[in-house]
Amino acid sequence: MKHTVTLAAAVAALAVGAVSAHAGCADPRAIQASSIPTIPAYAIANLRANSASSASAHPGDAAQNIVGTWLVSYQVRGMPAGQALIEWHSDGTEFENINFPVLGGNICLGAWKPVDALHVSRFHMGWLYNNGNLSGYFDQNETVRVSYAHYVGISDFKVFDLKGNVVAEFTERSDAVRLAP
Questions:
Q1: Mean of the pLDDT values across residues 156-161?
Q2: Can you give the pLDDT at residue 85?
Q3: Which residues pair with residue 127 across a beta bridge?
Q4: What DSSP state is assigned to residue 47?
Q5: Which residues does 28 contact at the CB level (< 8 Å), separation at least 6?
Q6: For 103-152, how does the pLDDT look when each residue is reduced to its tens digit (9 = 90+)?
Q7: How far is CA 126 from CA 11, 52, 105, 109, 181, in A?
Q8: d(Cα 34, Cα 80) in Å, to the nearest integer?
Q9: Neighbour tally for 100: CB within 10 Å
Q10: Of the candidates 100, 157, 110, 162, which has an alpha carbon nearest to the alpha carbon of residue 134?
C-alpha cells in the first residue's frame, strides 16, 4: 500500500530513525535548503534571457528541444529542494549532477521518451546512503513540457528501502533553463 508522505513527515521520520537515508541525487528529505548553495536568481534570469534569444532559431518538437544541458531548480511543496545540471541525450538517456553532498550521492541517471510534440517523460533513479552505506534508492517519474529555452516538469518521487518498500512518496516540480553553447 502506497503512503503519500509530505516533506515534513519525511523529515520527522528521519529524526526518529524510521528512515535513515542521507540525500541522494534528488532526495530533498535530509537536506536543508538553506545549506545548499544555488545559482542566484539574477544569474538564472540572464541564462533564461540568453537562451530565449536563440530559441527562435531552433524550432522543433519536444524530443528535439530537450536534448542539451539544462540548469534545473527543484521544489517540493513550494520549497527549494536542490539545483541540478542535467544532460539530456538524443539516444533517450539522461545524466544528472545535483548540488547535494558527494558522500550522500549526487549523481543519478535515467531514460526519457517523447510523449507528444510538447512533452517528454523520464524515468530516473539513484542510490541513497547512510554514513557511506547503501540504505535505499529512489525513482522519479517525470513529465516535462519543453520549449527550446525552458522546461517545467512535475514528477512522482518515491523513496525505497533496500527491501523495495516505499518509505516516502511526494510530488516534485522542476523548472529548467537551457545552458546554451
A1: 95
A2: 96
A3: 137
A4: H
A5: 7, 74, 76, 81, 82, 172
A6: 777 889 999 999 999 999 999 999 988 877 898 999 999 999 999 999 99
A7: 19, 31, 8, 7, 28
A8: 9
A9: 26
A10: 162
pLDDT digits 0-9 by tens, 56-65: 555 689 999 9
Task: Let me know how many helices (H) and strands (E) the chain has, helices first.
Answer: 3, 8
Enter the DSSP assignment of 54: H
Task: Please give the grid coordinates belonging to residue 52.
Answer: 530565449
Looking at this protein, which amino acid is placed at residue 124?
A: H
Cα 4 vs. chain centroid, distance in angstroms?
A: 18
**Can you point out the beta strands (E) in 28-149?**
68-76, 79-88, 93-98, 107-114, 119-130, 133-146
Residues 6+ away with beta carbon under 8 Å from 41: none
Determine the Cα–Cα distance for residues 150 and 88; give it in Å rounded to an integer.
13
| The model's pTM | 0.73
23-52 confidence digits (pLDDT tens):
445 444 554 544 555 555 555 555 555 555
Task: Output the DSSP codes for 2-44.
Answer: -----HHHHHHHHHTTSS-----TT-GGG--GGGS----HHHH
Residue-level length of the chain:
181
123, three cell numbers? 524515468
